[in-house]
Amino acid sequence: MPSQAESAPRNKLTPLQQRLQRLGLQHEQDFIVHLPLRYEDQTQVTPIARLRPGQASLVEAEVLQADVQFRPRRQLQARVADDSGELALRWLNFYPSQQKALEVGRRLRIWGEARLGFNGLEMVHPRLNQASGMLSSTLTPIYPTTAGLAQPSLRRLITQALARADLSDTLPDEVRRRFDLIPFEQAIRCLHHPSPDVSLASFEDHSHPAWHRIKFDELLAQQLSLAMARAMRHSQKAWPLDGHDGDLVQRLEQAIPFALTGAQQRAVAEIRADMLRAHPMHRLLQGDVGSGKTVVAAMAAAIAIDSGFQVALMAPTEILAEQHFRKLADWLGPLGVQTTWLTGSLRTRQRREALESIANGNARLVVGTQALIQTHVQFEKLGLVVLDEQHRFGVGQRLELNRKGEEAEAAVRYMPHQLSMSATPIPRTLAMTFFADLDVSVLDELPPGRSPVVTKLISMDRRDEVLAHVGDEIRQGRQAYWVCPLVEESEALQLQTAVDTHALLAQAMPDLSIGLVHGRLKPDEKAAVMEAFRQGEIHLLVATTVIEVGVDVPNASLMLIEHAERFGLAQLHQLRGRVGRGSAKSVCLLMYQTPLSMVARQRLRAMYETNDGFEIARRDLEQRGPGEFLGVRQSGQALLRFADLETDGGLVEQARTLAAEWLEQQPELAQRHLRRWMRGRQDYLRS
């Protein structure tokens, strides 16, 4: 079957081939590294009398009775027996085929987890098979699958692939000895068909030597890809941008109403050095909320504009894009730089004018949302791409904007320089594993005048106290945010919660001006509310998470997050970063509803214990995995499937060492290894 999936035309796939493709299974090599999630021990039959509650076992027994009961609900019930005792079976959802299999007097093999029911020991929703043939001689693998693809079918296809595929080793004997690794074929066969005498615990926690080998191979492929992506980028051409055409950088630095911090000056110098080179910059500017990334981006833009090129800045939300547009237009507009705004909500005439100014080059700086990557957006000469909150874009979207600047001259293709910004600091293990091909600048100091935010946890039972505190704070001349909770991830319910909360607060504090902003407001309505809040005309802003990033109101000193236990850790930290932007003491109140789950308790504790974005990011990585940091979930590309960043840091170091050696001394070994593990996914590293 793997070979059929490989050869079938893309638009004529059978239903089975479509299901396999959803799992990424097209070639024989894909099948052999599609490894089990867990195992079942069906190598021996357990007498009913020796079953233990909570333990999955295989029994062989005769059907004594079977019928459909209607109380307390419709269900299929049966009783079976062997020489040692009886066992009840029960299905709440069942098929005619299961009823037919439970013919009285028939002997069956039954696999399931025993538990104590009202009538003694029982199995709920067990699997049934005929009691014939030999028992399995190995543990039964359970694979990741998709709807419509049963485990027996998938096991059969993988076994076929193992019989045909090339299982030769991509690591020479010397490398295996050096890093204490078992041969690839031995590891793969062991993982697909482990003998019953192996330690099941070592398979489940991925500590078995077979898993150790597979994790090393995966990390080696990844490190090779990242190193090759860096080498490829260094082989690409970009226009060196030295800012020689004018003095915009100096004039901008004199015009902004504050002095750059040492970290900002260092980042600007690193970016300037990158943009002077004849290959594309690929730099990540990371800094905690409020660290001043926008002004660094403005300086980078000034260098590109002074060099005669255009700059595009893309942000994931309209509110964030508008915040950048306002700041950049305020700073650069008086210096003669035309800054253009492009989003999907522009009226037809506005859009046409914006597109014309981008195409003819009058728009030197273009700020917008994903509207920037639409096909009809054409730049005259794009030299720098800036991506804010880059992990919130799909990989494909980042690639599309990059390609807007591709330009051919004398048969040479030139790429734009790229600066990515993130307020989600990247933990060291993640940076080492996924961003090894990036140059990174870190803003590790806050601009002067920023006050640290005090975080307090408070139960929803004390809501009246909170209301009184919010009112007192505002009447002293401050402003506040009241963020409404996520409700079962439903935008409609979240919106209703915000509308209801706004009405309740307006009734409780009639002397105050209370605004409301959410994702379904029209852009001009949203902009009007935000402007009124900036100007101090609105005292308390009730909002959904649309204000998570991109809102800068120095007079706002209180952030209240209702049902904080429903938010992710990174999201809570971003929301907290909306206050503490002025000199006044700022407070973030996290209101929570008991009882708290263990994960929610960990999140709230982390928020209470630290304001350090790097520590928040580390804890968030522990809880959620790397997907959100990378922005690859939208792309459909797999992350690390087998290695674990928290426990396999030593393997990452070994893989990096070997990758560097191979690319310098034995590139043919690197290519062979990549053919097995990457299968064309390297292009996404370009983004």
Automatic annotation (TrEMBL):
InterPro entries: ATP-dep_DNA_helicase_RecG (IPR004609), DEAD/DEAH_box_helicase_dom (IPR011545), Helicase_ATP-bd (IPR014001), Helicase_C-like (IPR001650), NA-bd_OB-fold (IPR012340), P-loop_NTPase (IPR027417), RecG/Mfd (IPR047112), RecG_dom3_C (IPR045562)
Domain Helicase ATP-binding span(s) in chain numbering: 274-443
EC number(s) stated in the UniProt entry for this protein: 5.6.2.4
Keywords: ATP-binding, DNA damage, DNA recombination, DNA repair, DNA-binding, Helicase, Hydrolase, Isomerase, Nucleotide-binding
Highest taxon of source: Bacteria
Catalysis performed (reactions): ATP + H2O = ADP + phosphate + H(+); Couples ATP hydrolysis with the unwinding of duplex DNA by translocating in the 3'-5' direction
Domain Helicase C-terminal: 466-622
Pfam (any one): DEAD
Leader sequence residues: none
A Gene Ontology molecular function term of the record: helicase activity
Database matches in PANTHER family: ATP-DEPENDENT DNA HELICASE HOMOLOG RECG, CHLOROPLASTIC
Family: Belongs to the helicase family. RecG subfamily.
Role summary: Plays a critical role in recombination and DNA repair. Helps process Holliday junction intermediates to mature products by catalyzing branch migration. Has replication fork regression activity, unwinds stalled or blocked replication forks to make a HJ that can be resolved. Has a DNA unwinding activity characteristic of a DNA helicase with 3'-5' polarity.
Protein name: ATP-dependent DNA helicase RecG
Organism of this sequence: Mesopusillimonas faecipullorum
